[in-house]
C-alpha cells in the first residue's frame, strides 16, 4: 500500500502502521460490536439536531471533517485527525461532551441512544497556556472543564479543595493535563476510581506532532509515554484520538501512530489540506539601518487591520519596533 499523500479533502483512510507493544487489553474496536450508530445517516441526523439545539451560534452546523471525526469518536473508534489550524479540530472533544450531556438530560427525545450522565474526556496538552485557552473556549459553550496545571493545583490546595476527588467524581467534562502529571501518584488513583472509569469516553492528544518533536530524553521524555498511559491505564472501550496540523505523511506520522497505539486496520486517519489561502508571506527588507527608530514601511501592513507577525533578528530590534508602534 502506498503511503498517504496530503489531500485537499477529508477522507477516512486506514493504514498498516505497526501497533505499539503493550501488555494491555485489546483495542476497543476488537471487543465492541461491529455495528455503529453515529457514523451512519441516522447518527448524523441526531447529531445535527443536537448541534442546532445546543450550539445555535454554529449556524452552519459541523463541517464534513468534523462530522467524520466526531461520529467516530462517539462510536468509540480511534481517530488520527490532521487538519489546518482553524478547521475546528476542537470539535473532537467539544461535541461529544455536549452530546452526552444533552442525551442524558433528555433521554425521551433520543430513545434507544445511550449516553453517560457524567461523561469525561481526558485531553493531554503540551502547555498550560493552551490548556487554559481550551478551558475558556469550553466554558463559552457551557462545558465544564479544568486545566490540571501547577497553578490550579496550588490554588485548589489553598482553597482546601480536594481536586483529585473532583476529577474522580467527574465534575469536569474535559480535563486538560500535561504528560508529566499523568505519571504522578495522584493520577494512578484517579484512573482506577470506579466512577471515573465508568464515565470516561475518550482520551486525546492535542498538538500530537509534539510527541515526535518534544518526546526525547533531553527535553520532555514523558511525551513518549502518552500512548502507554492511554492503553494501559484507561478502559479499552474508549476512543483515543490525536489532533494535529503540521505532520506530514511518512516517518513522523508512523512514529506518532505507534506511540499512541493505533492498531493496524483499527483506526481512522483523517487528513485535510494544510493550505491557508488567507495567509500571505511578504518579505520586504527595511531601507534604513537597523539602529533606527522609525519604521514607516510597517505602517501600510498594520493599517489594514489584519493580523500581522513581524520577525526580527534581535531583541533590540523587537524593542525598537515595539516603542515605535506604541
From TrEMBL:
UniProt entry keywords in alphabetical sequence: DNA-binding, Isomerase
InterPro entries: DEAD/DEAH_box_helicase_dom, Helicase_ATP-bd, P-loop_NTPase
GO CC, alphabetical: chromosome; cytoplasm
GO MF annotation list: 3'-5' DNA helicase activity; ATP binding; DNA binding; four-way junction helicase activity
Domain Helicase ATP-binding residue range list: 70-265
Pfam families: DEAD
Catalytic activity reported: Couples ATP hydrolysis with the unwinding of duplex DNA by translocating in the 3'-5' direction
The keyword DNA-binding appears for this protein: yes
Superkingdom in the source lineage: Eukaryota
GO biological process, one term: double-strand break repair via homologous recombination
Its EC number(s): 5.6.2.4
Family the entry assigns: Belongs to the helicase family. RecQ subfamily.
Protein name in UniProt: DNA 3'-5' helicase
Organism field: Gymnopus androsaceus JB14
Organism placement in taxonomy: Eukaryota, Fungi, Dikarya, Basidiomycota, Agaricomycotina
Amino acid at each position: 500500500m502506498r503511503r498517504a499523500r496530503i489531500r485537499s479533502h477529508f477522507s477516512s483512510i486506514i493504514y498498516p502502521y505497526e501497533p505499539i507493544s503493550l501488555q494491555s487489553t485489546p483495542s476497543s474496536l476488537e471487543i465492541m460490536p461491529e455495528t455503529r450508530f453515529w457514523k451512519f445517516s441516522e447518527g448524523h441526523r441526531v447529531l445535527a439536531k443536537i448541534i442546532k439545539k445546543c450550539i445555535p451560534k454554529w449556524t452552519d452546523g459541523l463541517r464534513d471533517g468534523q462530522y467524520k471525526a466526531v461520529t467516530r469518536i462517539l462510536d468509540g473508534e480511534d481517530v488520527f485527525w490532521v487538519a489546518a489550524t482553524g478547521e475546528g479540530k476542537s470539535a473532537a472533544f467539544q461535541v461529544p461532551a455536549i452530546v452526552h450531556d444533552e442525551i442524558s438530560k433528555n433521554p425521551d427525545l433520543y430513545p434507544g441512544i445511550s449516553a453517560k450522565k457524567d461523561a469525561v474526556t481526558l485531553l493531554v496538552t503540551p502547555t498550560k497556556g493552551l490548556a487554559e485557552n481550551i478551558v475558556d473556549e469550553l466554558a463559552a459553550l457551557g462545558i465544564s472543564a479544568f486545566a490540571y496545571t501547577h497553578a490550579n493545583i496550588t490554588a485548589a490546595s489553598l482553597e482546601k479543595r480536594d481536586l483529585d476527588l473532583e476529577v474522580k467524581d467527574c465534575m469536569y467534562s474535559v480535563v486538560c493535563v500535561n504528560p508529566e502529571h499523568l505519571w504522578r501518584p495522584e493520577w494512578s488513583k484517579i484512573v482506577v476510581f470506579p466512577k471515573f472509569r465508568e464515565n470516561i469516553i475518550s482520551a486525546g492528544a492535542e498538538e500530537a506532532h509534539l510527541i515526535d518533536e518534544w518526546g526525547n530524553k533531553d527535553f520532555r521524555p514523558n511525551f513518549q509515554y502518552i500512548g502507554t498511559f492511554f492503553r494501559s491505564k484507561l478502559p479499552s472501550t474508549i476512543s483515543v484520538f490525536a489532533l494535529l496540523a503540521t505532520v506530514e505523511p511518512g516517518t513522523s506520522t508512523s512514529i506518532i501512530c505507534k506511540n499512541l497505539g493505533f492498531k493496524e486496520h483499527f483506526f481512522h486517519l483523517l487528513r485535510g489540506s494544510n493550505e491557508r489561502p488567507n495567509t500571505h508571506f511578504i518579505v520586504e527588507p527595511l531601507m534604513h539601518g537597523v539602529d533606527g527608530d522609525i519604521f514607516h514601511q510597517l505602517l501600510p501592513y498594520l493599517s489594514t487591520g489584519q493580523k500581522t507577525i513581524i520577525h526580527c533578528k534581535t531583541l533590540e530590534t523587537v524593542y525598537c519596533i515595539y516603542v515605535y508602534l506604541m
